[in-house]
Amino acid sequence: MKSPSLLVLVLMATLVQFTTNALHPIVIIPGSGGNQLEARLNQDYYKSSSLFCRLTGKKDKDGWFRLWFDPTVLLAPLTRCFAERMTLCYHREIDDYRNAPGVETRVPGFGSTEGIRYLDPYLKHISEYMATLISSLEKIGYKEGSTLFGAPYDFRYGLAPRDHPAKVGSKYLKDLQQLIESAFASNGAKPVILLTHSLGGLFALQFLARAEPPWRAKHIKHLLAVSAPWGGTVQEMLTFGSGYTLGIPLVNPLLVRDEQRSSESNMWLLPSPALFGFKVLVIDTSNNKTYTARDMPEFLTDIGYENGMYPYSTRVLPLVSGLPDPGVNVTCLVGCGVDTPETLVYGRGGFDVAPKVVYGDGDGTVNIASLLWLQSEFRGVKVVRVPGMSHTSILKDDIAVRKIIGEICDINSVDLSYVV
Fold first, then answer.
1. Using one digit for the tens of pLDDT, what is the confidence trace for 6-17?
2. Residue range 340-366, pLDDT digits in tens
3. Of the listed 96, 363, 390, 393, which one is catalytic?
4. Could you confirm whether 302 is annotated as catalytic?
């Protein structure tokens, strides 16, 4: 079926606005790496492998600089500096994650979409993230700070079960609740549409599951989750095993591997044993060993990341052992038909050398089983497939964006039922 043109969608949204005098406000939750992140160094505590890292970095008058995204990360000496500053430390005595010593971070623009349109506003042509999608939302009547809001976060951090502390992640959920309540109140008690991408869908699902049902029913209209990795990805095992540079040839994956392993949210994205079961995901031919999602502690040990075993077993595993009921209407918009890592085969050189990859279906990053897991667990979850669409192009491609806008129009058009 041919997708409606943008003009038709604009006319649909105009009709909705005319008849209801308001669109449901949207709060956008980006994915991992999907918003700007700033840092400041306390030289009394900041420990670096080189004087070079201590002295580099363009800072404002208060010492803040853009940590993500900064194109200098592509240069090998600065890649190491970047990795040091992005690294998280798990402290077993407090059972929580913190920044590396001497590194302070902040997320600019909470409540705004400015930090999620482009990762570097000075390099828009190479750092666009949601600019195309947000522009399309504005064309159908959404307005920044009025009906359209962004909820960026420090995407290195994750969440934990309720009986474990997660200082950064828990504060984000509180800030998200306040933003939703503010958007709800300023739009005449119109419940909010949560629009998420990738990791943002996992945060939204946990947020909804932890909210009181009366609050959820009052404040949330719909969850529209784009490319959500509900059950994690095999790609994440490659990230932990040998490092991942998003296909950028200039960057040595081994320079960023330790930092990527330290990320709490990356560990959250490892394949769920509840979904992937006993399917072999990694083969190490040099040691004649295989790993399934149920062998994750052993996998973490064998790749040389023994420090990850405890937080994975106590904090992550309970989160990924099953999906909580979102308690609201959900639409999942997913790419499919794109070669996606399904099995990793390591040979001589072990985990320090990139593996051979056996591909299956998905969006190039997330396996199709993970993209569809929520639908298989709960009745009434709608899935819209976009064949040939990758994990990130789904936010920019004309066909995919029209489908997202079409779903937003459909969600808003529900109000037409009571218009005379």
1. 666 556 555 544
2. 999 999 999 999 999 999 999 999 999
3. 363
4. no
